[in-house]
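Exercise 7 asks you to align residues with tokens for two separate proteins.
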Amino acid sequence: MARIPKNVGLLIIWFHPTLEQISNTLLSATHFQKTWVVDNSPSRNWPRQGEGKEIEYIHQPLNIGIADALNIGFSLATDARLDFVLTLDQDTYIDGFIMNRHVSDSLELLKQLDIAVIGCRYELTKSCEGGHIHAIFENRDSVITSGSIIRLTAWVSVCGFDSKLFIDQVDHDFCYRLKELNQKIFINTAIKIRHTVGDPITVKFFNKTLTTTNHTSTRRYYQIRNSLYIRKRFPQFSKPLLVYLKELAIMFICIIAAENGKIKKLLAIAYGVIDHLRSRYGKCNLKFLV
């Protein structure tokens, strides 16, 4: 299988990666001439088998968050004079053949200079495959960062990812700021990746089946705080209020009905609202959430 063009780099963010996730990173890197791994874990996770490969490992033991980790990788890719970066979360898996297809299809569309980002579909199951033989591109307001091919000049044009969000909504904020500059966001619906959201569990509640992401209390804090920020900052892209409130209600029901650490998670949500109202952003320093 041919390598992906040298003007496209790979960026993967780690946080307490498993051995399987580390192995997947090394496998994905074989398709690229340059890969960056930014590790937000307290301890180094760089494996011995990664030595000598064209991978640059950057360890950030204080956990600088997703936004700043992405910015470090994009800055290094800019210094390396690349044109595009494919970003992957550690819990995303994409088959090598499908990844090559995703990049080659996207590079054709990216010849249009007003297109900034091309994402792809994701599934929570273990399936990971290409759908249609030919790319099917759709215009979107935003896509998730994982599995997206991003133009480096677009990243520069909006001064990078917003570090005050730290994690959650970072990708949507980035896309919305690009849209404000009349840059376009696309998704290739013919490409599907496997991507895990939280630690999902499914339960029965009053004879209804509910699936919850089962995120940690810290993530619940960021989810609420940052979603409120996004609604205020980008009302033109936000969901209708009733839809947003319905989703919040479902989250509360799922936490109460199925998740562990209910009290801590509900307190985290409350503090997320309070910090948004006080315009307190950046890394969460609430000790009871740790």
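Second protein for Exercise 7:
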Amino acid sequence: MIEESLKEARERMDKAVSSVQKDFSHVRTGKATTALLDNIKVECYDQQMPLNQVASISTPEVRLLTVQPWDKTIIKNIEKAILKSDLGLNPINDGSIIRLNIPQLTGERRKELVKLVGRFGEEGKIAVRNIRRDVNDKMKNMEKNKQISEDELYRVQDETQKITDDAVAKIDELVKNKETEIMQV
């Protein structure tokens, strides 16, 4: 029971770290990456569909994304969806392909992105701490109900803290790397 709880905590904390990493992939750093367009939904065939399911997305150059729809009739819808997104990109439509130039980041925009990255990191750390609290509460209840000894409770709390520290360190490293990437581009 104790080992299962620790394993579950480790898995949940790893998912929190992965979630932070995924959030970071959507932060525009001045380099073209297909992940920037992951959250864009396109109106086509009477429904909302992810952009990557209706078009081929590539990065032929460092600051250029191309979107080539499989069905040319929806190119206007793709253009509208990109314009509606909060990415601040201006699509160039030549009738068969959409080009997205990724502009250089201004100093002010870089600072905003660093704050955003910090916020994502802090949200991830809060999630990790909440998982730690859940495990500790569960173990305290087990100790109170005489299912585990006081020594086992302290051992589990120590182990949970080590897992938490590892997850927080991973998030801190991700934040540091992303901030460096933003400021250097």
